[in-house]
Amino acid sequence: MIIKSVKLNNFRCHEEFLLSCWKETTMISGENGSGKTSILEAIVETTRGKSFRAVDREIIRRGAEFYRVELEYVDGEKVVVTYEAESGKKTFFAGEKKTARLPKKYKYPIVLFEPDDLNIVGASPSRKRDYFDRFFAQLSDRYSSSLSKYNKALKQRNELLKKEFLKKEELFSWNVLLSRLGVDLWKSRVELVENINKKLTDIYRSIADNEDEILIRLEKDAEVDENGYFRELEGRFERDSIVGHTSFGVHRDNYKFLFNKTEADGSASRGEVRSIVIALKFIEAEMVKEVLGKSPVVLLDDVFSELDETRQKALVRNFKKNQVIITSVGAVEDIE
What we know:
Glutathione S-transferase Yfyf (Class Pi), Chain A, domain 2, globular, 4-stranded parallel β-sheet
């Protein structure tokens, strides 16, 4: 699918805005604060079903009663999302149907590259988990569903842990649920990281033109099955009751980037780190195509200004077969 246009009404700073897209590369140029990223955000809203930046009440233009985004593909298919400030109601219109969520049939894969992604190698464990969770959720509906259910169950368990007089048996059902979902997420993460690692070094070397070895290591609390996970949660009742949160589980996983078998954060140069991240983005697009059978739309949010000419050319070369939408403060030369 190729995006033909996207129209915004009362979305962020845009009272009205229409972007007509090219089949290959579309450039959005403007000063900082002019709303370039908001256009990409609107595209993600209509292709994935929710913003990557904020909740709806923060998106609507100040003083407006609603926001509306209409995305049209070249085949004439349209997806419209509206949000009403007074009711807090969000509605999708796709295929002549009105729904509260974007139907799976109308979701389209996106690879988003933000400037902050260039810092992912040295980011906090939670930031890295968020990044990979978004990556993996797009590849697998099961992963997305398990993650959503896990987070809801974790929130409920943590709320109970704040009770003054909590009985251990009150956590039983949540421990069972977290154990099942947690092990499912662990297995998926292990498999997906292994698939990334099969490609990472070779793609990195094609960008950096050297013989360095890159690896991602998934660090977990423990290697356990469902029963072991459950016993661990049960065994931490006293500790968790004192601290008021769940101290064991997949919500504590960490992804470490290794550069020649040493942690990349601190040993790899700035340029080497950026080559690692670019390689990871290439793999993201490649895995989306392999798993979903669709070439993702690539959104590059002001990343060219952060990269040298060699890495800029690597981005352009690798995403040549994708529809690419770029934001930039200034013109990007030799983009074709």
